[in-house]
Amino acid sequence: MKGQAQRHGxxxxxxxxxxxTWGVAQIPxxxxxxxxxxxFPGIILYGIAHFALEDFIRSEKERKVYRALTAxxxxxxxxxxxxxxxxxxxxSWLSAGSYAEAALPLGExxxxxxxxFPLVSEILMLLPFLYWFYFQIRQNTVFPKKMAFTNxxxxxxxxxxxxxxxxxxxxxxxxxxxxx
Length: 180
Fold this sequence. Notes:
The chain is built from 6 helices and no strands. Helix content is 68%, strand content 0%.
């Protein structure tokens, strides 16, 4: 990190994890704390919205399944957010101090060792979305069938396509982190 550009938006990286950039190393600790503080009310609002959707499902049996998938899928959202914030915080803290040489290897080692965690979390998080999409395609909700294409998964793939066309810049890095 020494000798590299010292700016928050620097997208240059030196390891295999493309989002552990020199710019990320400059993020102050209070921003990571703020990110976690905002994640908690965010997950509560997310849960309220998901549980409210069950009222639009026609079958009581399918409502119960959707409710269970939603309850089971909420925990990975906050856990995954915490996982990434802790890696980013440790990377930033180590980079700023006398442990700068260890920052990148440690961040990569933690991510590699727990590489199963994001995959399992994302699978659990996607279950309510997939089930909801399935309901809408089968017209088991009060919404018209074409509303299935407003599903977050469709929006996710659209954003992924947009991100893929962008040059390497801070905005693209931000989109990548939101989509990880």
